[in-house]
Amino acid sequence: MFVLENGAKKGEDPRLQAISQAIRVVPHFPKQGIMFQDITTLLLDHNAFKDTVDIFVDRYRDMDISVVAGVEARGFIFGSSIALGIGAKFVPLCKPGKLPGEVISEKYVLEYGTDCLELHVGAVQSSERVIIIDDLVATGGTLSAAIRLLELAGAEVVECACVIGLSDLKVTAKLNQCFLFFTTPDIPSQRITFRYLKLVEYSHHS
Questions:
Q1: What does the alpha-carbon distance between residue 177 and residue 175 come to, in Å, rounded to a whole number?
Q2: Is 15 assigned a catalytic role?
Q3: How large is the C-alpha radius of gyration of the chain?
Q4: Is 111 an annotated catalytic residue?
Q5: What are the pLDDT digits (tens) for 127-175?
Q6: Is residue 204 part of a domain?
Q7: SS3 assignment, position 52
Q8: Catalytic residue among 59, 61, 102, 111
């Protein structure tokens, strides 16, 4: 389950409604039954895009973060912008074969098969404080792999941050008690929620 540690009440920040409305939901894409959260429409809205980045920058500016790690691919969009805003370096976490040179790898299980994230050796130094950025959290599997990968490199993962967190999660992973900071635009009536949550052990719901 999710444990709510703290957060804003619904509608408290007027920017959140505009951010939520800027995200298009595409039914049955890329396959039947999937409600695809399309952030490309958010990127077309300069004000909503800026507000999204600013909310995260405001949170992390004074948390002594030295590294922002973005998960391929949409995590690159938000992560690099946040890194510039807080004065941190940006480190891409990529799928196999995308990074030249020596890499550290971490495999993770998907619903049908496996995938892998890679990090350049030397991109993150021991004990550096890191936040992980992605556009959306669904099962938590990718973020869990990102945490393990960065910890393998010796980093301290302070928090994960996503623009979108689906309330009806089919959760199969545990994020090592890591904090997760996100908005929830899954259905219109709940799109104005902005909160940060602590992911703890939870059961699978179909």
A1: 6
A2: no
A3: 16
A4: yes
A5: 899 999 999 887 778 888 999 999 999 999 998 888 887 655 544 344 5
A6: no
A7: helix
A8: 111
Q: Where are the beta strands (DSSP E) in 65-102?
A: 67-71, 89-93
Q: How far apart are the first and last CA of the chain?
A: 14
- Report residue 162 as tokens: 């996503």
Q: What is the dihedral of CA 117, 136, 150, 195, to 10 degrees?
A: -170
Q: Write the pLDDT tens digit of every residue in 157-168.
A: 998 888 887 655
Residue 122 belongs to some domain of the structure: yes
Q: Residue 120: inside a domain, yes or no?
A: yes
Tens-place pLDDT, residues 62-120: 999 999 999 999 999 999 999 999 999 999 999 999 999 999 999 988 767 889 999 99
Q: Which helix (DSSP H) or strand (DSSP E) does residue 150 occupy? A: helix 141-152
Of 64, 190, 202, 102, the C-alpha closest to 144 is 202
Number of structural domains the chain divides into: 1
Residue ranges making up the domain that contains 7? 2-199
Among 12, 59, 72, 74, the active-site one is 74
Neighbouring residues of 131: CB distance < 8 A, sequence distance ≥ 6:
60, 63, 65, 67, 68, 69, 82, 157, 158, 159, 160, 161
- Name residue 92's amino acid: P
